[in-house]
Amino acid sequence: MTSRRLLLGSLAAGLLTVAGLAAAAQELPPLATLPPVPVPADNPMTPEKVELGRQLFWDGRLSGNGAMACSVCHLPELGWGTATPISFGYPGTEHWRNSQTILNSAYYNKLFWEGSVTSLEAQAPAAAGGGVAGNGDGSMMEMRLRFVPEYVEAFREVFGTDWPKISQAWQAIGAYQRTLVTDPEQVPFDRYLAGDETALSEGALRGRDLFEGQAGCIACHNGALASDQRYYALGVPAAPQFDDDSLFQITLRWELYQKGVPEAVYRAGDDDLGLFHVTKRPEDKGRFRTPSLRELRWTEPYMHNGVFATLEEVVAFYNGGGGAGNTVLSPLDLDDRQQADLVAFLEALSMDEPLLQDPPELPQTQTWAEFPDEQN
Ligand code: HEC
Ligand code: HEC
After folding, report:
1. Banded model confidence at residue 228, pLDDT cuts 50, 70, 90
2. Could you tell me which of 15, 101, 11, 347 has the C-alpha nearest to residue 208?
3. Long-range contact list for 277-284, CB < 8 A, 24+ apart?
4. How far apart are the CA of 19 and the centre of ligand 1, in A?
């Protein structure tokens, strides 16, 4: 395969300097069209469960103050994320990371920028309960659901239990998120793979060669998601918000503290340390999970702290050899046209139109006196 030879050539030329990458390159999964979404055996999908999950995703009852629904930070018209580089946080706080798109999150085997949870069902309570996200108490959120007759009925139908359980809410939201995936027929690159040779522009085709060759992107962004789901420290510049905004600094120190980092690291903490927070291994400082490159047209800004507003900025960052202290990237020496070609290829991994949805109408909370007889 030409592209693989090119890649190995660029690795040999020292453009990518980590030996592990070179080893992994021997067996890189090629870019490919996404397969049907994987569904866990213990949470099968039904249309009723997906519909319930859709309502719950938009429902502020699944948060502390009744107003921080998942959709607040994952808005369809903002690529199912937020427009701000770092997501805003629960009222009174700031978050510390860019709100990831939830498009195609069903395909990852590890979620969040440092991959700390391994299923959508485990991710949802972490989001709804997280101090700078939903900040909700599980038993309170569950009780709120039990005061909505339409939910009681829907949970009974979907899960066969008398009363809604909060764990079932996370299952329903997981099922719903498994429907928020790329439609290959709408993606130029997937149409090209399916045989439509006109689907990619000349520039995008040249960009693909660079991606798989001289630019070495494929070393980490491979397979159907264009992510190897491993962790690397690219030296992405620190978010400027941490320099001079006390609310961001409070969140940063709080995250360090509650994640139990050693005292010295806590005292010196002026940036997000990524995977280190999970493993506490010094070599994991600044390492983040390789994100998917699908749907980028709709999901700006980019990187764990949203520090780059455009794909041009991202490509310029790689062209310059990444950021300070990184040991995995070297300068690429691409001219302006090559950089534009790479951007054209990245854009061709997105659907022609963003996946949009209107908010559902939410059912009303009732007093117990107003419940239908059969629910009392
Ligand atoms: C206050 C804003 C906020 C709210 C509310 C929120 N999220 Fe998020 N979400 C984020 C941010 C920021 C991240 C990245 C966090 C990180 O990596 O630590 C994220 C990450 C995720 C991811 C991981 C995606 C990936 O690629 O790994 C999923 C899935 C997700 N959120 C779903 C949800 C669901 C479901 C809810 C509601 C139960 C929710 N979020 C509520 C801001 C929010
Ligand atoms: C050594 C592994 C590696 C290589 C090589 C690599 N990337 Fe990445 N890429 C990552 C990681 C890790 C991140 C997230 C970094 C962060 O947020 O700190 C990332 C983030 C990105 C993002 C932002 C995505 C988002 O949703 O925020 C884009 C775009 C991107 N890479 C494109 C490329 C391109 C184009 C190339 C080739 C020029 C490339 N990458 C080479 C590992 C890699």
Report:
1. very high
2. 347
3. 277/114, 277/116, 278/114, 278/115, 278/116, 284/231
4. 33
Q: Do residues 164 and 141 lie in contact, with contact meaning Cβ atoms separated by under 8 Å?
A: no
Residue whose tokens read 């070599």 = 283
Looking up tokens 């994640």, which residue turns up? 259
Sign (positive or negative) of CA dihedral 332, 28, 326, 207:
positive
pLDDT (tens digit, 9 = 90+) per residue, 43-98?
Answer: 999 999 999 999 999 999 999 999 999 999 999 999 999 999 999 999 999 999 99
List ligand 2's pocket residues with C-beta within 6 A: 16, 215-217, 219-221, 232, 234, 236, 288, 290-291, 293, 296, 299, 302-304, 311, 314-315, 318, 328, 342, 346
CA of 283 to the centre of ligand 2 (A): 19
Residue nearest to atom 8 of ligand 1 (CA): 127
The closest ligand to the CA of 121 turns out to be 1
- How confident is the model over 329-371, as pLDDT tens digits? 999 999 999 999 999 999 999 999 999 999 999 999 999 999 8
Asked if residues 284 and 275 have their Cβ atoms less than 8 Å apart, the reply is yes
Q: How far is CA 176 from CA 117, 128, 237, 353, in A?
A: 18, 16, 35, 20
Name the residue at shortest CA distance from atom 11 of ligand 1.
99
* CB neighbour class for 19 (10 Å; exposed up to 12, middle 13-18, buried from 19): exposed
Model confidence at 201: pLDDT above 70: yes
Q: How far is the CA of 126 from the centre of ligand 2 (A)?
A: 25
For tokens 């709709």, name the residue. 298
